[in-house]
Design brief:
461 residues, globular, mainly alpha
């Protein structure tokens, strides 16, 4: 029998790249040679690349316990001198998972992995804390940067963005001033962050003034993201003439027009009933070689649904498929919402049921809209059936819908209420509204039977 060739560290990295399933990748990493000799065999020598690959796969899949197991193994593997980028990635995964404490902890532990912390990992931590909206912890991180490193443009850009997210625009200007005072030159991202923030609070005059200053004084050309922010800001205040002028300026200055520009304008024109211009923009878009994307078609679908022209929205859905543009979850959810608002809840339910076949499974929002639709048309039997399906899939209605539904159930037969409550508890989806109604039932009726049922519910929690 031919001897199976053992997997080498180099080969393992290649196999990890090819493996799509993170759990299978983990098993491969931990036991790359399952058929090899066990007795007195040397431990497998993992390469830095294989550590990087498996951590990335587990982090992106939000398998944090498994990722931490590998991170601990990396710490104990004294042969490896990991690069800082591995820890930047780990911090990023914790940020996306809304786990700020763990992001801070791994940042603090970087030296124990035989790696030096620099401004790169500190900025990554700042960015992750921003995602978690931990503004106080961001200030602590900045204090560490001042003591142990030098803030760079990326540092200040993150802090400026944080101020706008906190609705603290004056703080953004303070960071901008400090940035220049310390000799750190603003870059394109700095101006983009400031202009986007100013447009968000409709300070368009300041935004355009900053754009002129960056062009004339700093000799920095605005990119497409800056133009998109300005056009969105103008559309919000219905200054469509200036928005179109800005789009024309992009063409003159040979700034690449992307679908986002046209999608913003199309959506805005639909909202104010200027439909003819939307189709002119769509034609211009195609003539300029800018292919409509899913966002563009979603803007048109949303416009039709707002005008209660659901059949036109469906035709747009068909058209986008013909153009090779796959509808996404937003495409279907917008139509479901339009159908429910138009009282066509049965059709919305049919589309909901058809979504898996269309290779776009519904999400919690899809179910909630249809559930609200059934409640709005007083079709409580359909609402109850859909609720069963929602709970089975781990979804629950939003609290306001749940409250309205319970209000109606309480006015009817008590047994319906208790069946509903047991469904919720079985999936551990009880909330303050559920318990509030339980208390109302017992206080109103003072039935021993109700008290016994509450006892059962608490025991099943």
């Amino acid at each position: 029998m031919q001897k199976v060739k053992a997997i080498s560290p180099f080969r393992l990295s290649s196999l990890l790249r090819l493996q799509k399933d993170p759990i299978s990748a983990l098993e491969l990493f931990l036991n790359p040679n399952p058929d090899g000799p066990k007795k007195n065999s040397k431990p497998f020598r993992h390469s830095p690349l294989s550590y990087d690959l498996i951590i990335a796969k587990l982090g992106r899949a939000k398998l944090f316990l498994e990722m931490e197991r590998i991170v601990e193994k990396l710490k104990d593997d004294k042969r490896i001198l990991p690069e800082e980028v591995i820890f930047c990635n780990i911090i990023t995964y914790y940020g996306r998972g809304r786990m700020p404490d763990k992001a801070i902890r791994i940042f603090q532990e970087i030296p124990s992995f035989r790696c030096e912390r620099t401004i790169k990992s500190a900025n990554t931590l700042l960015s992750s804390l921003l995602i978690c909206r931990e503004f106080g912890l961001m200030r602590n991180t900045f204090s560490w940067i001042v003591k142990h490193a030098s803030p760079d443009a990326c540092t200040y850009n993150i802090l400026i963005n944080a101020c706008f997210l906190r609705s603290y625009s004056s703080g953004a200007w303070e960071w901008f001033d400090e940035m220049q005072r310390t000799g750190c030159e603003p870059n394109l991202v700095t101006f983009g962050t400031l202009i986007n923030g100013l447009c968000g609070i409709q300070e368009l005059e300041k935004a355009f003034s900053l754009k002129r200053w960056m062009e004339t004084e700093m000799k920095i050309r605005p990119n497409v993201h800056i133009y998109v922010a300005l056009i969105k800001g103008l559309c919000k205040v219905n200054d469509f003439r200036k928005a179109i002028d800005l789009k024309d300026e992009m063409m003159r200055k040979q700034v690449s027009l992307d679908p986002g520009i046209y999608s913003t304008l199309i959506s805005a024109f639909f909202k104010v009933g200027r439909r003819r211009e939307t189709f002119e923009l769509l034609e211009e878009m195609k003539l300029n070689g800018c292919k409509p994307d899913t966002v563009t078609y979603n803007a048109i679908i949303h416009g039709y649904c707002q005008d209660k022209e659901i059949d036109s929205a469906f035709r747009t859905l068909t058209e986008m498929e013909k153009e090779g543009c796959k509808p996404d979850l937003i495409s279907y959810n917008v139509i479901i919402g339009g159908l429910c608002r138009d009282g066509r809840v049965g059709e919305a339910k049919d589309l909901l049921d058809d979504m898996p076949r269309l290779r776009c499974p519904p999400d919690a929002i899809s179910y909630r809209m249809v559930f609200d639709g059934f409640c709005g048309t007083s079709d409580f039997k359909e609402a109850a059936d859909l609720l069963d399906e929602m709970i089975y899939k781990g979804y629950v209605p939003c609290y306001s819908s749940l409250s309205n539904y319970l209000d109606i159930l309480v006015q009817g037969k008590h047994m319906e209420v208790w069946i509903f409550l047991f469904r919720m508890v079985k999936k551990n989806h009880t909330c303050r509204y559920v318990w509030r109604f339980l208390c109302c039932l017992v206080c109103r009726d003072s039935h021993v039977e109700a008290l016994e049922r509450i006892s059962l519910l608490i025991k099943s929690q």
